[in-house]
Amino acid sequence: MDGIEEIGKKAYQKQMWGAYEEAITLYSDAIKRHSNDARLLNNRCMCYLELKDFKRAMDDAENMILLFPQNKKSYFRKGEVLMNMEKYSQAEEAFKLVLKLEPRCEEAIRHILEVQTLELSKQTKYTKKNIIRALRMTNDVEQAEKLLKSGKFNAIMQELDEAVYYSEEEDDKSENEYDPFLDPSNPLGSTSLWVGNLTKEVTEQTLKNLFGKYGRLKSLKSNGQYAFINYFDAVGPAKAMKNLQGTIVGSKNIIIKFPDSSKKSVKPK
């Protein structure tokens, strides 16, 4: 009788060839004898997904969560099933549980952006490009919808396209690409903010009063067009970005971004 590794290899080979039903038969046989192996349930769930058998795929995903609650793939598979069932808000919650286990899981972050985009596309008439931009700025479906409906959205986008912090490399980015520098959840753990689209009448004291509401400021320096604001912790910048992105200060909508130096300061795991 073949061991679990041998059965797993045979099943996975069938899966890669697209012989999903045969792979499921092999995985099911292995699961009966080795129910404590997360890989078997995970791969069988993926096969059910390919066959669009969402009920059985969800059963496997739920069993994974029950048996392997600390395995990020348990929640990831559930998110994929829900996304395929067009239950986008529920899928988003499942992918967010992945981030609780692995906060910098880029695949989960991309899927969250994707399901948020699909949810808003279903609810509104806005273009995919504008939906993604609004989501990048708010990280929240409800807030993104409010921003899209507000009269200031187009003005913000025009100024954003002309902002001095965009490099040629950034201009070439895919519209679908996740941008951590605009994510108000502050995945980079930055203690600083870059604030652009300022006018000369906006003084440093004005900015201190405005941004100081969200945390203790360490320093602030403005040249009249843009400013760098430093906090004592990473909580303040996140709150400020979430609440102030696109706010009219002076006569223009300000643009907030985590500075490019933020990524360099993150130590790889």
In a nutshell, what does this entry contain?
This protein is an alpha+beta fold and 269 residues long. The protein has 14 helices and six strands. The protein has helices at residues 4-17, 20-33, 38-50, 54-67, 72-84, 88-101, 106-123, 128-138, 141-149, 153-162, 168-171, 204-211, 235-244, 261-264; strands at residues 192-196, 217-222, 227-231, 248-249, 252-253, 255-257.
CATH class of the largest domain: Mainly Alpha
Briefly note the CATH topology name of the largest domain. Serine Threonine Protein Phosphatase 5, Tetratricopeptide repeat
Gap from first CA to last CA = 40 Å
Please mark out the parts with pLDDT under 50 across 5 or more consecutive residues, or reply none: 164-173
Number of helical segments with 4 or more residues: 14
Strand content: 5-15%
Biggest sheet details: 4 strands, antiparallel
Helices and strands, in order, run as HHHHHHHHHHHEHEEHEEEH
TPR repeats: 72-105
InterPro entries: Nucleotide-bd_a/b_plait_sf, RBD_domain_sf, RRM_dom, TPR-like_helical_dom_sf, TPR_rpt
Pfam family, one: ANAPC3
Protein name: RRM domain-containing protein
Detailed description of the structure:
The chain is α+β, with helices and mostly antiparallel strands and about 270 residues long. The chain has two domains: about 5-115, Tetratricopeptide repeat domain (Serine Threonine Protein Phosphatase 5, Tetratricopeptide repeat); about 180-265, Alpha-Beta Plaits. The protein has helices at about 5-15, 20-35, 40-50, 55-65, 70-85, 90-100, 105-125, 130-140, 140-150, 155-160, 170, 205-210, 235-245, 260-265, and strands at about 190-195, 215-220, 225-230, 250, 250-255, 255. The protein has a four-stranded antiparallel sheet with strand order 2-3-1-6. A two-stranded antiparallel sheet has the order 4-5. Keywords: RNA-binding, TPR repeat. This is RRM domain-containing protein. It comes from Gryllus longicercus. It holds the Pfam family RRM_1.
